[in-house]
Amino acid sequence: MLVDFFETYEIELISSAFVLLALLLIRYITNFTITKVARKNGINDARIRLIRRYVTVTLFLITILIEAYVFGAKFEDLAVVFSSVFAVIGIGLFAIWSILSNITSGIIMFFSFPYKVGDKIEIHDKDFPVRAIIEDIRSFQLHLRLDNGDLVTYPNNLILQKAVTLVEKDAIEESNIA
Fold it and tell me: What is the mean pLDDT for each group of 10 consecutive residues in the chain (178 residues)?
């Protein structure tokens, strides 16, 4: 019975092995590239792991799509399934769009945010001007330490919308020395 299974799906199983090997190779290359770019830009390990996790999940979903096609699903059927799933997810996530906005901003900040953990910045916001040291950059928000010692979380999507000035580079190290 097991032999019949392997004989029946021999081509599909071989194709699946190639797809999985390709996935592992692509995952290794992207993780290596992300880590190299992040280390060059001085990004901390927690953010590197977060972005690598996003890439892994995306690659996994693409692999599921390819595997379904390999095992005989028609493109039209897959399109209907995925469009239905994304429609339901889209409607469900519309209520929490700001979370998606912050996650997207976190990914953008990973690749093009000019400030690092330890930098002292000033956010030019007329309602809530902030002058603080960046303690951590997370997927949803920045952790900022004010001069009076208070910890403020600032949403990632707002930091990309406001003007920001670098006051001191690596202010945490300088404050620890003093």
Answer: 78 89 94 91 85 90 86 80 77 70 84 85 88 88 91 90 85 54
Q: Which ranges of the chain does DSSP label H, i.e. alpha helix?
A: 2-8, 10-40, 45-70, 75-94, 97-112, 156-159, 171-177
Amino acid at 148: N
Query: pTM to 2 decimals?
Result: 0.59
Provide the CB-side half-sphere exposure for 147 (13 A, CA): 8
b/e per residue 122-143 (b: at least 16 CB within 10 A): ebeeeeeebebbbeebebebbb
Q: How far is CA 87 from CA 80, 83, 102, 153, in A?
A: 10, 6, 21, 32
Those residues whose C-beta lies under 8 Å from the C-beta of residue 57, and which sit 6 or more positions away, are none
Asked whether the CA dihedral 7, 9, 12, 16 is positive or negative, the reply is negative
